[in-house]
Amino acid sequence: MMSKIKKSIIVSIILTPIVILVVSLMGLHERMQQTQERAIHLTNSIALLHEIAGDLQTKDNDLARAWTRTFEQANERHSKVLEDYNNHFLARLNAQTKLNVDAMAILDRELEDVEDHFDRSVADIYKNFADVYEELGGVEDYFDRSLADVETRVTAVYEELGDVTDVFAGRFNELPSVLIPELAQELIPSVVQIEVFLGINKYTGEDIGWLGSGVFVAEDLILTAGHVLDIDEGLDYYHEYLDMEYLWKVGVIIQVTFSCGYDAEPIDYYMEDPEITDLGILKMAPGMPWPKPIPFGTAIVGETVIVIGSPYGFFPSVSSGIVSALDVEDSENFWGASNLFQTDAPTNPGNSGGPVINMDGEVVSILVGGIQYADGIGLCIPADICKLVIEKYRAMRALEALE
User: Which residue spans within 93-206 are E strands per DSSP?
Assistant: First the structure.
């Protein structure tokens, strides 16, 4: 039994490679057949490509011949069209030339007609001018007669206006000779700010004093309001607050400030009796180049005036208004309240003592105050009283010098 099995195994071992080899040979043969078929197919494809290439070459040759024929035909047609166009253009040109010649002939005939008409029109115009000149002869005579009549009437009018012209000239001379800006610029240097310094507040250390305004009315005299120089009243009012030791050491200082910024102190001051009027005077050192004094003048109600001064320390300030009234009585509010001068020019604290000036550049009054809570009521001392106070001051100082 074992020997049969061994034989079977040996036979299997021997036959198996043979079988595998046979199978492989069969597969290889089949692949060779497939390869041979593909080679045949490829040969057929190459032959077909050669045939197609031949056809393409034939078609290319046909196309080249067709293109050549087409180009030759197009060239022939272009030459024919160009020849036809030239012939047509020459024909039209000849026709147009003939038409232009005909038209020019027509225009020449029309121009001759226009020239004939123009000549006839010019002749008519000359004739009309002659007629007009003839007619103007009478008009010229009439114009000469009318002009003579007008000259006569104008002469009569001038004679009638003689009196009116004289009156107008007189009134014109009463008008302001300058404008407010020019007048203000000229007179501001003659107006000063006055500062009265009493001392210092012993509680706060602040300065105690007040401001006013003034104006040079003589070579070395400044006119101001009397209450601006009322030092006794100020000492009484501020006594409780003044540092008396400082006051005894320094004293009361009156400082005059000019519009150019220069400061100076007076050598003398005078306050008129407040029961008489509210005016005061500062005497400056003689021989110094002080500003030009402003002369006194008069005013009428309704006249334009300006006020120059230092309201609230804004110096120099200019305001304008009119003369509202003369000879005003106001005994309840101001010292020396008779014969006051009233203006509506805006005024404020610090303007006191400043001049009220007319348009002729003359001091017509000195501002001394206004009505509390009122608007446009400024009260002033008129120039006549100012001149009396100045004369009184000079007389008093002259008498004192004799003692």
Answer: 191-200
| Domain ranges (residues) in the chain | 81-126, 134-175, 180-402
C-alpha distances out from residue 119 to 122, 163, 331, Å: 5, 64, 102
Among 78-82, 120-124, 137-141, 280-284, the minimum mean pLDDT is found in 137-141
Q: In 42-113, at which residue ranges do the beta strands (DSSP E only) sit?
A: none
Cα distances (Å, whole numbers) of residue 274 to 126, 278, 367: 98, 5, 15
- 180-402 belongs to which CATH class? mainly beta
pLDDT band for 383, please (50, 70, 90 cuts): very high
Residue 389 clears pLDDT 90, i.e. is over it: yes
Q: How far is CA 329 from the centre of its chain?
A: 50
d(CA 264, CA 291): 13
- Among residues 77, 58, 80, the alpha carbon closest in space to that of 69 is found at 77
Instruction: Give which of 173, 255, 261, 275 is closest to 214, Cα–Cα.
Output: 255
User: Looking at the predicted structure, is the pLDDT value of residue 173 above 50?
Assistant: no
- DSSP annotation of 285: P
Where are the extended beta strands (E) located within 181-316?
191-200, 207-216, 221-224, 253-257, 263-264, 268-271, 280-283, 304-309
Give the whole-angstrom CA distance, residue 331 versus residue 343. 17
**What pTM value is reported for the model?**
0.57
Find all residues with CB under 8 Å of 210, minimum gap 6, and list them. 195, 196, 228, 234
In this structure, the strands spanning 317-328 and 340-343 are: antiparallel
What are the structure tokens assigned to 175, written together?
Answer: 């008008």
| DSSP letters spanning 2-36 | HHHHHHHHHHHHHHHHHHHHHHHHHHHHHHHHHHH
- Separation of alpha carbons 284 and 214, rounded Å: 12
> Quick one: which H or E segment has residue 388?
helix 383-402
For 35-57, write each residue's pLDDT tens digit: 777 778 777 777 777 777 677 67
* Phi, psi dihedral angles at 65 (to 5 degrees): -65, -40
